[in-house]
Amino acid sequence: MESPANAQWQMADPHVFWGEIAPTEHVVQIYENDESFLNVLGGFVSSGLTAGECVVLIATTPHLNALTDLLNKDGFCVAELAADDQLILLDAEQTLAQFMVNGWPEAQLFNTCVSGIIKRAKDRNRPVRAFGEMVALLWAKKEAAATVHLENLWNRFCETQAFCLFCAYPKIGFTQDVNTSAHTICCAHSKMISGEQKSATRIFYKTAV
């Protein structure tokens, strides 16, 4: 299989890309700025909601607020979706704290925490997709080993559950060329989205492992 450095970038319509994504995919974006990140995240969320899926967002407060504004402007009623549990909004710091022990993600606590979230998401027999920003919080604290461990916990959990998982990291947290310093991060995922998205009308992606 191609390495992240050698894989070829492909272009797709965001609605097609997110609409056809397999429920077992683990997708990552290492983004240049919040605009490019929110363009991609907005497509991920809106495609799921339009398809009748439950969307779980575990994100920072600024990103939750920005996405809420974006969805409302696009004609979604966030308050109604949240009340119906079709859109589950969770604070990343608070969720992360539920399973961190001495600066390390504890596997049993993680499984208990995430199992509860996914059970709630599946309660009305909807397909589920989830976005998680907890790994980015650990990475920002220079906790590389804990970040990779958390990614692996997600991967093991997803092996027993059928949902697409998307996570994202700001490029500013990487001190070298992304394909070098982020190699371990990329290899924990099935697809990588370009961090230089300039519009919401197209998406560039490639095989990440």
TrEMBL record:
One Pfam family of this chain: MEDS
**Residue ranges of domain MEDS in the record:** 26-178
| Name of the protein in question | MEDS domain-containing protein
Q: Which organism is it from?
A: Mucilaginibacter antarcticus
